[in-house]
Write a sequence for this structure.
């Protein structure tokens, strides 16, 4: 069931919305350049410290902090199990994934134009779908129909459990490495008469059978009709990550193998864990290419946000003079031209100022180029439009004082 409720924003508020758009664009550009500097440093350090590990039987202290590439067998340590339902075994990790069948609100904006300019219409759409957590329908922003109210039969937390002592070759495995392994769904064979943990939990969760439950499509389903979900139904799926032969590029840290972290402590990390072998140098090069593509994409998005925000702010001018035939057309052309020119200058200046802090020489070079461009344009303009001095007044007749 889908329903949509339009919500028209006041026109004047639509113009004022240009300010947060401009500030948001500046924040995005600053964050993007800061992230770019740290990412470049991360991949440079990872490439410089890349080491092929040949001896996978022992830990060599000389490899501390290096990006190690090798293939080995991932082995579980202690047996692992879900504390609530008892699912587990000799796995690297198990995960309990819980979903709730809920009404979910989706919002999208539509741009429209009329004689007064551009305005925004916000639509709210309500769809029944599986959500990773209960949704509070009282917080819906749109005018949701009365029957679009959420309930839940019960609330169960999602959970991850990792095998203590799991190893990959000579190193212990960091949980992030275990999470990077392709997960497998269980066939629910563990749900048998001998699983006392499961039976006790089901009895408690269903309030001694008052809430219906079924085993359906690799899930424990709480609800009346699994093939026809209703609002409030809950399903629990169990995922495990098993032992096997894998290949990795990860950082040696003491006796543990973890994602590679840059020396500056930035949150960005890099690792690869896969069942097939790969060229670590090519993989790093591919990551660098993907990062550059992302950086330039965000630069363009920030630039367009600045242009759009400026144009939105100046929309009030278009509104005031838009009804005047000739002046309205001139105003629209001028606003568009000014928005693109000033937005571009503001975007480049923001990036340059950010570089002054992060990369001083590059930032100062960009700022110098901007200043030089302005000076050259000023000189070019003066040459094309020289200032003619006023004419010299004629001399008074001889013998007369002015």
């Amino acid at each position: 069931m889908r329903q949509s409720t339009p919500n028209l924003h006041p026109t004047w508020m639509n113009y004022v919305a240009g300010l947060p758009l401009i500030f948001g664009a500046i924040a995005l550009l600053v964050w993007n350049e800061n992230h770019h500097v740290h990412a470049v440093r991360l991949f440079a350090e990872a490439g410089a410290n890349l080491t092929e590990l040949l001896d996978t039987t022992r830990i060599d202290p000389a490899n501390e902090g290096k990006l190690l590439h090798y293939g080995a067998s991932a082995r579980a340590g202690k047996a692992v199990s879900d504390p609530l339902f008892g699912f587990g075994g000799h796995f690297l990790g198990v995960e309990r994934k819980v979903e709730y069948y809920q009404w979910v609100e989706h919002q999208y904006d539509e741009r429209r134009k009329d004689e007064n300019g551009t305005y925004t219409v916000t639509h709210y759409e309500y769809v029944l779908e599986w959500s990773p957590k209960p949704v509070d329908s009282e917080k819906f922003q749109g005018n949701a129909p009365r029957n679009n109210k959420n309930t839940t039969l019960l609330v169960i937390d999602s959970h991850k459990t990792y095998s203590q002592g799991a190893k990959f070759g000579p190193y212990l495995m960091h949980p992030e490495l275990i999470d990077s392994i392709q997960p497998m769904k269980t066939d629910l064979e563990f749900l048998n008469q001998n699983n006392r943990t499961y039976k006790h939990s089901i009895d408690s969760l269903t309030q001694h059978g008052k809430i219906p439950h079924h085993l359906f499509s690799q899930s424990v389903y709480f609800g009346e009709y699994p093939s026809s979900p209703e609002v409030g139904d809950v399903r629990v799926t169990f995922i495990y990550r098993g032992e096997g032969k894998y290949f990795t590029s990860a950082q040696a840290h003491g006796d543990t193998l973890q994602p590679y972290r840059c020396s500056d402590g930035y949150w960005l990390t890099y690792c690869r864990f896969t069942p097939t072998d790969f060229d670590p140098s090519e993989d790093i090069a591919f990551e660098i290419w993907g990062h550059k593509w992302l950086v330039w994409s965000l630069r363009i998005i920030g630039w367009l946000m600045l242009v759009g925000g400026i144009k939105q702010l100046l929309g009030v001018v278009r509104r005031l003079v838009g009804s005047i035939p000739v002046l309205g057309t001139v105003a629209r052309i001028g606003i568009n031209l000014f928005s693109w020119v000033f937005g571009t200058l503001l975007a480049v200046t923001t990036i340059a100022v950010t570089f002054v802090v992060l990369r001083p020489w590059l930032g100062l070079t960009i700022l110098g180029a901007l200043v030089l461009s302005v000076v050259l344009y000023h000189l070019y303009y003066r040459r094309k439009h020289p200032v003619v001095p006023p004419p010299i007044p004629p001399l008074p007749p001889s013998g007369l004082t002015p």
User: Anything to note?
Assistant: Residues 49-278 form one domain. DSSP finds eight helices and 19 strands in the chain. Helices lie at 11-16, 18-48, 175-179, 196-205, 280-313, 315-321, 325-358, 360-384.
